[in-house]
Amino acid sequence: MKEDMDIKPTDVFLLTEPPGSDRSELCMKLLARRERARLYLAGDGVYHLLDRGSDLPPSCDVCACKEDVAARGVVARIRAEVTEEFYEILVEDLMEGDGRFFNF
């Protein structure tokens, strides 16, 4: 039972804003403070796949919407799962997750 108490909740971040926007900068600042996080990139948020690898903590998993990545011609330069089931995974994570949800 003690082992379960040591596991930190995973906070979920949904980012649809491009790099350089005020909301993106706020998202990255909050993300850096989390012990465990999952970042979902959709819309113009997928542009973060190009150059944001150094800003992401190692404990952060990244998932991107394959349709949005293809529509914008983005080639990921950071570790990320690019999937067609993006929204299904996001909803499942929100419904079953134990952390907080942030939307930018």
Automatic annotation (TrEMBL):
Pfam families associated with the record:
DsrH
Which Gene3D superfamilies does the UniProt record give?
A: DsrEFH-like (3.40.1260.10)
Q: Which domain of life is it from?
A: Archaea
What is the name attached to this protein's record?
Answer: DsrH/TusB family sulfur metabolism protein
According to its UniProt entry, this protein's organism is: Candidatus Methanocrinis alkalitolerans
